[in-house]
Specification:
This protein is of the alpha/beta class. Helix content is 36%, strand content 16%. Strand 1, helix 2 and strand 2 (55-61) form a beta-alpha-beta unit. The structure holds nicotinamide-adenine-dinucleotide. Nicotinamide-adenine-dinucleotide is lined by residues 36-42, 61-64, 67, 87, 92, 95, 115-118, 120, 138-139, 167, 226-227, 229, 384. Pfam families: GFO_IDH_MocA, Glyco_hydro_109_C.
Length: 452
């Protein structure tokens, strides 16, 4: 990509006032990137990095040799130079050697992407920022509320760029709806909904066989593979909105959270936990399997409500343990109408027939985001319907242009801290809690995400 093109694209992605120089040197044409965690998600992100001419994948780290091997095979398939590797010895802190750069050709990396289990995100991000290696972190930012303050403080202290790699903000319809919101199509926003409604039962259990990560058995923890190895444990120990950012990211963009608006109050309710146990016992031999004795704390449906300074409410639902088709359940409702993604429909007063839904497609075509119009062909074949191209693109372009990250540290910790706050609310009998202001008052003057 030519320099003028990427600056234009960067400005489009990031807002025009954002191309200020930073402590990280002059803008660059090409960046050297490392990855910590080359599991199922890491490999998807790696593919996006490898597809680009402006990225050199210089280092990879994973403590699971099979996952590392798969990532190396991807690099080879693209005909790119072999990166330095770390973690083959199973050392859980091998990422520190990746970060110090001494064993990486060319020295310290320009950035690191973290795609490890949630419990590692805060620690790895903090150490990377302290080592002055800019971070692109997979969702979530941390586990405990303190993690979120620690990640924020490490970023503020070090000044190292940090982006949460929340890809749903880049979904084509989500971005078109952002255009609709900004053009006033819905009138004044009043209420929004979103969530993570994804039947993960076959992800949370398998038989540990790397060739069959989904639904091949009933093991989890040390005997499981990929997410069954670590994610399921969170359903055993925790009860809350465990995966908020896919739902809240777009809703926060629409309502300008941390950028003229803020969350003020939060509460969460959880149902009983039945789905995972039921899934286990319905499998052949499941009732006798040791997993059938596990008591899961995570309610099957967790409903979280947020109140905003400007008067909107946002409702999130986490629903991963029951049979259901995938849907993030978006609803954006204002004084003039609403959009819902589950029925691919919209209703705008004065345009739609009274009390009737209209198909969304004509609106999608009319309000398609300029980034999608420009890059749709490059995004073709990228993960999750193309949005994984955009999230990596945004991160790399911001790095190269030395521009602030579009989904920055304040967005990251605000969206992700919904998890520990929802857990606290549920633990305190569904109490409504104050939502911390991570921006320390700066929400009043910060500019919207993706201001065009
Ligand atoms: N944005 C999305 O659409 C999306 C989709 C899937 C997963 N994710 C997120 O990506 C992250 C990873 O999920 P996944 O599905 O790839 O899980 P995974 O289990 O397949 O991969 C995680 C990898 O991290 C490695 N790892 C664990 N501890 C490590 C350490 N100390 N040092 C180095 N490597 C270590 C594991 O060996 C494994 O290969 C999670 O945060 C998950 O929520 C995001």
């Amino acid at each position: 990509m030519k320099r003028r093109d990427f600056l234009t694209a960067g400005a489009a992605l990031l807002g025009s006032a954002l191309l200020a120089p930073s402590a990280f040197g002059a803008s660059r044409e090409r960046v050297r990137v490392g990855m910590i965690g080359t599991g199922m998600r890491g490999q998807v992100l790696l593919q996006e990095l490898l597809r680009r001419d402006d990225v050199e994948v210089a280092a990879l780290c994973d403590i699971e040799p099979i996952m590392l091997g798969k990532a190396l095979a991807q690099v080879e398939k693209f005909g790119k130079p072999r990166p330095a590797t770390f973690g083959e010895d199973g050392d859980k802190h091998a990422y520190r050697r990746l970060l110090d750069g001494a064993k990486v050709k060319g020295g310290k990396l320009d950035a690191v992407i973290i795609a490890t289990p949630w419990e590692w995100h805060a620690q790895m991000s903090i150490e990377a920022m302290q080592a002055k290696v800019p971070v692109g972190c997979e969702v979530v930012a941390g586990v405990t509320l303190q993690d979120h303050w620690d990640v924020l403080n490490a970023q503020l202290k070090s000044g190292t760029p940090y982006m949460l790699l929340e890809n749903v903000c880049f979904r084509r319809d989500v971005m078109a709806v952002l255009q609709m919101v900004r053009s006033g199509l819905f009138g004044e926003l009043v209420h929004l909904q979103g969530g993570y409604q994804h039947d993960l039962r076959a992800v949370k259990f398998n038989n540990g066989d790397p060739a069959k990560p989904y639904g091949s058995g009933l093991e989890f923890g040390a005997k499981g593979w990929s997410e069954a190895r670590w994610r399921t444990e969170h359903s055993v120990r925790r009860n809350g909105e465990l995966y908020p950012s896919h739902g809240i990211g777009p809703c926060a963009m629409y309502t300008n959270i941390n950028r003229g608006n803020r969350f003020t109050r939060i509460n969460a309710f959880a149902t009983k936990a039945r789905g995972l146990h039921d899934y286990i016992t319905k499998q052949p031999g499941g009732a006798q399997h040791p997993s059938a004795k596990t008591e899961f704390r995570l309610g099957d449906v967790v409903t979280t409500t947020l109140a905003c300074e400007n008067g909107e409410t946002i409702l999130l639902q986490h629903d991963t343990s029951l049979p259901r088709p995938y849907s993030l359940g978006f609803r954006v409702q204002g004084t003039d109408g609403l959009w819902m993604d589950v029925n691919h429909s919209i209703h705008i007063e004065g345009k739609s027939k009274p009390h009737q839904w209209e198909d969304f497609q004509a609106y999608q075509d009319k309000y398609d985001h300029p980034l999608w119009r420009k890059y749709a062909s490059r995004a073709e074949g990228a993960g999750h319907g193309g949005m994984d191209f955009f999230v990596i693109h945004a991160f790399i372009e911001a790095l190269k242009a030395e521009a602030p990250m579009p989904i920055d540290i304040y967005d990251a910790v605000t969206w992700s801290a919904i998890t520990p706050l929802s857990e606290q609310s549920i633990a305190q009998n569904f109490q409504t809690l104050d939502f911390p202001d991570f921006t320390n008052g700066q929400w009043r003057t910060r500019k919207p995400i993706f201001a065009l």
